[in-house]
């Protein structure tokens, strides 16, 4: 029995298991080269995964930056619709966007977001913020930096404003902002000094690509306004709601859209305020009318009177209007309650100027969209400009010292203005070409009428 068992095990083992045991004895492990190849492949895959993850995170941060800016812009426009202006730089720095009035506090954004960190692409850490600038509330710039192409936005510093988003720092993409080589406006007006670090005695001018600044010798009037030109005697700004009041005593502030205006105060410092005591004849404050900005609306029966009129003594003047008519009917800008003096756009498409003695007209066409109308009067000639273009220059005698004391009405004919006025600037001299062009650039940069 023992022998049979031994014989069976030996026979069976030799026949069936010896080949398997032989194979097991001859099997080799991975070589070092094979291990290194496998490790290298795993390393490459891990690296690609990390790079893809980092790219996805960077794109996510850029998307958040763009979304944040859009939300802030929406809050700024809500503020503008209620207040007729944008928050100033100081107000924005509080960290939220809100306004207060007699009826309570309106919150448009409880907490202004901060840019996600870290910065991405070529953006420096100092650019990784939402940089807001609005010295007087009439407009704003909101600069931010994205690491790469995000939608239609290029990688780098971009600047949001009421008219959209442009590539580059503050002023980028605005009219006249490129390839400037002098400190005449709007060259340096469109350039924020932060775009280039300029030494003393120099200023920052917009570069040729509108994306960076270059240094030039001289001084740049970066805070230009009508007050920057001497001789300003009347400045009316519908985008400064603090200059308007609901009563002729100029004591109750206008609060919001469609409020009647009993007093529109002069920002020139001359005290040439406009008033109206009759409620039915009061113009109205209207928001979001031209380039997202407010105007004073005249309904065809509205009229303002000059409570005083000082500062005009030599018969010369220059007047600038941003306005439009709502129809082709005659629209009166200036009139006089005691004479035939007027400045109006007639129903035949001519603009008429009467100085109380003689009169002339220019074929400006119907001004039924917001435009810049100018009349420069030097005592013997009156030059008409529409949107910066000379229409005609005609001789006129019988010089008078700014012969107007009403706005929106001419008593001799009973004509009114049915339309809107955004801004008015009047000087007590015939401005030089450079001064006139500077005022044109300022007004067109605000309202984009041409």
Give an overview of the whole structure:
The longest helix is centred in the N-terminal third of the chain and has 52 residues, at 32-83. The chain is elongated. It contains 4 helices and 27 strands. Residues 171-199 and 206-212 have low confidence and may be disordered. A hairpin with a 2-residue loop joins strand 13 (284-290) and strand 14 (293-299). The strands form 6 sheets. A 9-stranded antiparallel β-sheet has the order 10-11-12-15-24-17-18-19-20, with no helix packed on it. The chain has 2 domains: 54-217, no CATH class; 226-447, Jelly Rolls (Sandwich). With 450 residues, the chain is of the alpha+beta class.
Break the fold down into its secondary structure elements and pairings.
Elements (H helix, E strand, L loop, with lengths): L1 H25 L5 H52 L5 H4 L4 E5 L2 E6 L21 E3 L7 E6 L9 E6 L2 E4 L34 E5 L6 E5 L14 E6 L6 E2 L17 E2 L9 E2 L8 E7 L2 E7 L4 E3 L10 E9 L5 E5 L6 E4 L5 E4 L4 E4 L8 E7 L3 E6 L2 E7 L10 E2 L1 E2 L4 E2 L1 E10 L5 H15 L3
Antiparallel strand pairs: 1-2, 3-4, 4-5, 5-6, 7-8, 9-27, 10-11, 11-12, 12-15, 13-14, 14-27, 15-24, 16-21, 16-27, 17-18, 17-24, 18-19, 19-20, 21-22, 22-23, 25-26
List keywords for this structure.
single chain; alpha+beta; Jelly Rolls; 9-stranded antiparallel β-sheet; 8-stranded antiparallel β-sheet; 27 strands; 21% helix
Structural class: alpha+beta
Count the strands?
Answer: 27
> What is the radius of gyration computed over CA atoms, rounded to a whole number of angstroms?
35 Å
What's the architecture of the largest domain, going by CATH? Answer: Sandwich
Strand order of the largest sheet: 10-11-12-15-24-17-18-19-20
CATH fold-level assignment of the largest domain? Jelly Rolls
**Discrete helix count:** 4
Categorize the overall geometry: elongated
Number of domains: 2
Main sheet overview: 9 strands, antiparallel
First-residue to last-residue Cα separation? 118 Å
| Top-tier CATH class of the largest domain | Mainly Beta
Mean pLDDT: 80
Task: Name the helicity range.
Answer: 10-25%
Beta-strand residue percentage: 25-35%
Low-confidence stretches: 171-199, 206-212
């Amino acid at each position: 029995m023992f022998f049979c068992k031994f014989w069976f095990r030996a026979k069976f083992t030799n026949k069936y298991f010896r080949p398997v045991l032989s194979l097991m004895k001859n099997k080799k492990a991975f070589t070092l080269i094979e291990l290194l190849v496998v490790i290298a492949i795993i390393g490459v895959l891990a690296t690609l995964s990390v790079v893809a993850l980092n790219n996805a995170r960077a794109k996510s941060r850029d998307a958040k930056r763009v979304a944040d800016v859009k939300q802030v812009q929406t809050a700024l426009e809500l503020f503008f619709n209620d207040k007729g202006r944008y928050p100033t730089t100081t107000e924005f720095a509080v960290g939220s966007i809100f306004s207060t009035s007699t009826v309570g506090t309106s919150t448009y954004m409880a907490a202004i977001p901060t840019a996600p960190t870290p910065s991405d692409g070529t953006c420096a850490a100092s650019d990784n913020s939402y940089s807001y600038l609005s010295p007087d509330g009439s407009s704003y710039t909101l600069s931010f930096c994205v690491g790469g192409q995000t939608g239609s936005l290029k990688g780098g510093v971009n600047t949001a404003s009421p008219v959209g988003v442009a590539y580059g720092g503050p002023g980028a993409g605005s009219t006249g902002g490129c390839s400037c080589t002098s400190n005449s406006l709007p060259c340096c007006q469109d350039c924020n000094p932060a775009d280039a670090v300029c030494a003393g005695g120099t200023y920052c001018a917009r570069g040729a690509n509108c994306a960076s600044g270059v240094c030039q010798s001289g001084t740049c009037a970066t805070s230009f306004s009508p007050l920057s030109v001497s001789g300003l005697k009347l400045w009316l700004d519908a985008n400064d709601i603090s200059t308007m009041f609901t009563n002729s005593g100029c004591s109750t502030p206008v609060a919001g859209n469609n409020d009647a205006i009993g007093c529109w105060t002069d920002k020139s410092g001359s005290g040439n305020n406009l008033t109206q005591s009759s409620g039915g004849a009061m113009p109205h404050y209207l928001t979001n009318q031209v380039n997202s900005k407010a105007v004073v609306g005249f309904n065809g029966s509205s009229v303002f009177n000059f409570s005083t009129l000082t500062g005009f003594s030599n018969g010369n003047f220059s007047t600038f209007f941003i306005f439009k008519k709502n129809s082709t009917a005659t629209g009166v800008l200036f009139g006089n309650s005691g004479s035939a003096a007027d400045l109006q756009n007639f129903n035949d498409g001519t603009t008429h100027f009467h100085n109380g003695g003689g009169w002339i007209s220019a074929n400006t066409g119907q001004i039924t969209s917001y435009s810049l109308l100018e009349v420069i009067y030097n005592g013997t000639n009156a030059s008409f400009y529409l949107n910066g273009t000379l229409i005609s220059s005609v001789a006129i005698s019988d010089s008078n010292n700014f012969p107007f004391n009403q706005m929106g009405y001419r008593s001799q004919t009973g004509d009114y203005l049915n339309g809107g006025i955004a801004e008015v600037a009047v000087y007590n001299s015939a401005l030089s070409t450079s001064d006139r062009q500077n005022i044109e650039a300022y007004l067109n940069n605000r309202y984009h009428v041409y």
